[in-house]
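Late entry, evening session. Most of the bench is empty. Finally got around to the prediction I had been postponing all week. Sequence below, unchanged from the version circulated by S.P.
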Amino acid sequence: EQPYTSGEDDLPDNKKTSTAKKRNIGYWSALLKLWPARLGPAPTPSEEVEQVIPLDTERGVSIRLWQFRRERKAVAYVRFEGRPGRRLYGRLHEIAKEIDDQIAGDLIWDWPMRNSFAVVDEGVDFRDHHDWEIQHAWFIEELTDIMEALTPELAQPCEADEESGADFTEERHRLRYRFWTELLEHAATKTELHANRKPGKFNWIGGSI
């Protein structure tokens, strides 16, 4: 029996992009048909391999469902961004065993990045539409467990930031300047293309060409 193939590798790049977007929308649309009403309104299906589900915008908390297609992994992870999000993640990490017990899959903490945790299902084939039902059932089970486990913590008032806005902005600018300085120093050892670039305090750098 020949392995399943979509023939996508034989398409030109622009057709690949269009096909990938349609495939992703189809995949997430089928999953979101199973969305439990008790979890609130379902998000809009994504055209990317990642489906984002905001949980608490004030704290910067969201659930990300991800198709690692090449690695054949289905991943559901919770991302905590910003200072309030990192504080919440720290509190959850202190009760990691309690959180683990409420979620069907085995949690991986600080993965796929810092201040996040994930559950992973390996050996899945996203190209096989006949397997989607099993994949979607897994996503929904893990998603439901995660949201129910986080509900008590998210119900707590968001702690006020102890650092003033001005202090926070100054620290952010300092870190950006340091980042760009070290990046340009490293680039200078590899190429002269960035020789006229200067480090700055914003989230971009520029210069004359």
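Two things to note before I forget:
The beta strands are 50-56, 61-68, 73-80, 108-109, 116-122.
The two ends are 56 Å apart (CA to CA).
Will write this up properly tomorrow.
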